[in-house]
Amino acid sequence: MLAVLLAVSLVAAGLVWKRERDRGSAQERVALAHGLALHAAELRDAAPGTARDLGLAAVKIHSDGQTRAGLIDTLVGERGAELTPDASSEVALSGDGRIALTGAGDEVSVWDLTTWLDPKVVEKSDRIAALKGHKEDVGAVALSFDGRTALTGGDEGVTIVWDLTDPAKPIRTAALAGGKNAEDLGGVRAALSRDGHTAVIADDDGDVTVWDLTDRSRPVRLSVTRAPTSSVFRDLALSADGGVAVTVDNDGAVTVWDLADPSRPARSADRVLPAKSAEMAMSADGRAVLVGNAHRAGLWNLADRSRPVSTAVFDVPLADMYDMALTSDGKTALLAGPSDSAILWDLSVPSRPARLAALKGYAREIDSVALSADGGIALAAGPGGVSLWDLRGLAEVVADPELAACRGNPGAEIDKADWARYAGGADWSDYGGEGMDFLAVCLINSGSDALSASVRRGGTQSPT
């Protein structure tokens, strides 16, 4: 009986020891993975290849939200490129992401992104044209879905209509004076319907003007309506059909405009949306509106324009909100502010917004962002220039960053020098590097595999 009790006690002690050993080993793996992920983030700009390998190693060793997000950000960063180093305050994209506008100073550059989106083309094209004619800085750009009609708004209060049927040879077709008379001065915000036939201009005098651009050379002013606060506008959006517009004024008041009868705009939800909003974006169908300010954004359903319904409020790691963009279906958002990255959010489940990735690569703030209709192309602009991201295939990267990284670089390796530099003294034999001069990242042992390797080497003995 005594022998049986002794055996049971030894087994119990062994189980307790094993649990403690496993717990300690798991904590070591988590600490190693998080440390590698941190080094990867620090190396994204200086050594992107090393950053990718370290980030992948972190996920292989311990996959959690932190390591996965870090690897996703690194993989997305590899899809970015500098369009131009020149500062830009405004950007716009056509629906298919092929034509881009970037505004700086008193002119707007026109870009054909065809070569930029073809990885087989090494020599990328420069801007193909410049839109000039403003006396002051350009503070607004808008582009129709097909990229054939553009609006540029200057701080002198004039909005110029451009025919971009041949984007390399833009034609100035008309100038739209702001406000109730041609002498009104001040900056403007501008938006176009999907077909480019309807334009809405919001100026610094607090006037919202609706124009019919069916004949771009003979615009017809349909209405001028004074906003409730008669203050400067900081943002404006228009639905694809031109039937609903949303404005944000300098006081942060958000107003929904029903343009079913463009000659008589109606404020259908005046001051119903949250006050003190900094920026706003709207889905193409006009049924979803995203508003945001420092540290927070909110998604609203406008199915009933007179009674917007809040569907989600979520925290955003931005000290302020400088710009935001939505895909046509309202399922993906891009938010930017005074940081070196713009943040992509998944809004496909409106009640549960989820962070997708950070588009990094700036040393200064981002002033303006744009997304193609399907979210496959993104632009971000600021004092540091304009960057372009090819986000086609992002869903696969987010779903399984480990698979995406190994598929793109199956021979990824970490040598002993880098392991010693970044792994904090961890024994790489535990992770598949025993007897090797390099560690094959895609074959790294993780979890119980790493522990088993340690036991096989005799690194840990069971109690007797």
Automatic annotation (TrEMBL):
Keywords: Repeat, WD repeat. Pfam families: WD40. WD repeats lie at residues 131-164. The keyword Transit peptide does not apply. It comes from the Bacteria. Signal peptide: none annotated. This is Uncharacterized protein.
